[in-house]
Amino acid sequence: MDSVQSPDWPAAPPGALAANSAAARYAGPTPTPPSIGRATAPPPPAHAAPAPPPYRPPAATPATTGTHRATPPIPVKILVAGGFGVGKTTTVGSISEIAPLTTEAEMTTAGIGVDDPGQRSGKTTTTVAMDFGCVTIDRSLKLYLFGTPGQTRFGFMWDDLARGALGALVVVDSARLDDCYPAIDFFERSGLPFVVGVNAFDGRLAHDLGAIRWALAIGEHVPLVQFDARDRLSVRDALLVVLDRALDRATREKRA
């Protein structure tokens, strides 16, 4: 096939490189083909820049020893139990540092005669599973609070909720002591340390603490405290008693 040459390209003399070759256009030297089986590299040009050092991957940084890392707080599971409508959900919500998880459902006419919140209660919802909240005591301790349902028909959930718990706060309404008997019986049978917290509805009690202890038939080894489920500091003090009770039991078991 005949080639076509532009009139702008100069004619190449016989035996010379084409005028439009890379060497002719950019005046670059013609590279010398390497010898086959060469043992040493050719000497560098006279004015060539020094070759860069060979690549070395960065050395792995050794693990720092002796560094004090922040230790996560120890999780402690605490139950908030009691009868129906005694203030368990309010207790968890007052102290929790996160938005508490609640399983509240509207009370309907089907619960009339079955769920009795009391005459002075304006309760319109009820816990059908559990309440959950948490609160950090200090850098080493964090409480996870599980509120139990109060109705008898949900009693089958208590065993699962109590698994792994270190203690319990049994919330009591002093005007409806009969509703808290099942909760106290449960923790006495399970052997879990518990504290009875009498919720002061409207800031007052229907009976004094001595009469309540006698009516509940609980021994002197069970702490009995008064608190207000709506007040964060009051709930905190009641939970600290639960922690002290659990710690006392753990210490006695360790010595045994």
TrEMBL record:
GO molecular function: GTP binding; hydrolase activity
Pfam families for the chain: ATP_bind_1
Keyword field contains Nucleotide-binding: yes
Low complexity bias (residue ranges): 14-27, 61-71
Keyword GTP-binding: yes
Segments for region (Disordered): 1-71
Matches recorded under InterPro entries: Gliding_Motility_GTPase, Gpn, P-loop_NTPase
Biased composition annotated in UniProt, kind: Pro residues: 41-60
UniProt KW keywords: GTP-binding, Hydrolase, Nucleotide-binding
Family designation: Belongs to the GPN-loop GTPase family.
Protein name, UniProt field: Signal recognition particle receptor subunit beta, a GTPase
Species for this entry: Micromonospora sediminimaris
